[in-house]
Design brief:
7-stranded mixed sheet; single chain; 7 strands; Aminopeptidase; alpha+beta
Length: 178
């Protein structure tokens, strides 16, 4: 079996006219990647409505977050939502990758790695020295992905009822160590 060829990826801030493509990407990635882990009653189309994405892209959320888009061959095929660490135990110098989605047609082609690199660079530009990310404990693919990029589990776990309450582990990385 041959491995998919690495894609040429342009990671940059999302653009308002891309709200539909960003939503479609997040929903497709959610449905494929979370199947069997997040209950089917949790509808990604509610969380990733184009109107909500457009609000964020216009800067109407006021939470310090930003959406980065991954463009491959002229199409948006990934996104990262980044911002200050939202946890109750957050330190002021900690940023967070709040969400990371790659369209399933582009999995294992370097899009996710490029998005993480872009997200970490952006968080470092904002002055953060550490980044955290939460990922599903029942997804060996996600766990291995973050570990391969140098993230380390920090022992924290959570269950978010709005997300269907699957177990999540927190990972962190020092931005100066990359």
């Amino acid at each position: 079996m041959t491995q998919p060829q690495a894609a040429q990826v342009d990671v940059r801030p999302g653009r308002l006219h891309e709200a539909d493509a960003l939503a479609e990407t997040a929903i497709a990635a959610w449905r494929e990647g979370f199947r069997g882990i997040v209950p089917d009653v949790v509808d990604p189309a509610k969380a990733w409505r184009p109107e909500r994405i457009a609000e964020r892209l216009r800067g109407e959320n006021h939470d310090g977050g930003e959406i980065l888009a991954a463009e491959v061959d002229g199409e948006v095929r990934g996104l990262a939502l980044i911002g200050p660490h939202r946890g109750t135990d957050a330190e002021p110098d900690e940023g967070e990758i709040i969400a990371l989605y790659v369209h399933p047609t582009r999995w294992r082609q370097g899009v996710g790695s490029a998005l993480v690199a872009g997200a970490l660079d952006r968080l470092a530009q904002w002055g953060f020295s550490t980044a955290v990310v939460w990922t599903l404990a029942e997804s060996p693919r996600n766990l291995a992905f973050y570990e391969a990029l140098g993230f380390k589990r920090d022992g924290a776990s959570q269950r978010r009822p709005s997300f269907g309450s699957p177990l999540e582990f927190r990972f962190r990385i020092a931005l100066g160590d990359r």
